[in-house]
Amino acid sequence: MPRVRRSKPRFTPGHAKNLVGVAKIIGPAVLPVVTPYLMKAAGAARDRLDRYRARKLGIDVAELPEFTGRGGALHVRIVGADQSLAELESAASTTADDRAYAARARDTLTKLAAAVRAAERMPTARRKAAQKSVGQVLDPIERELLRRLGVAADRA
Length: 156
Known about the structure:
It is a single chain. This protein has helices at residues 13-57, 72-90, 96-119, 124-149. The chain starts with 12 loop residues before the first helix and ends in a 7-residue tail after the last helix. The mean pLDDT is 89. The radius of gyration is 28 Å and the shape is elongated. Helix 2 runs antiparallel to helix 3 (96-119) and helix 2 runs parallel beside helix 4 (124-149). It is 73% helix and 0% strand. By secondary structure, the protein is mainly alpha-helical. The protein folds into 2 domains: 15-65; 69-149. It has 4 helices and no strands.
């Protein structure tokens, strides 16, 4: 029967102890040289993360601090709908019906924004349920707004 050879572990407690000793000696000499590079790398990583999050939300990086937290995406949608309502009201072809819709929708958006802020402090299950409900109320507002702006086709 062939003998099975056991391989030696590459990293043992003795190796770890030796590395810690070397780090204690070399660390203070290397740290001042390496620190600026580490800080630059950390800054670049943070910048990339911020740009990714902003792109995912569909906003500018400068606006990112306004939309933090777990309800950030809903806040972006609510603010976007509110801005679109302002455009609807200022359009030359706005009717009295459009202005009345904008007033009702703006009142609903104010309540939805308050609900999203309140949900931030809820336990996870309740927060997710509340945010799902807000999204379901926000969907028809956005659809109707797009229809009134002439972007989406009328559905009968």
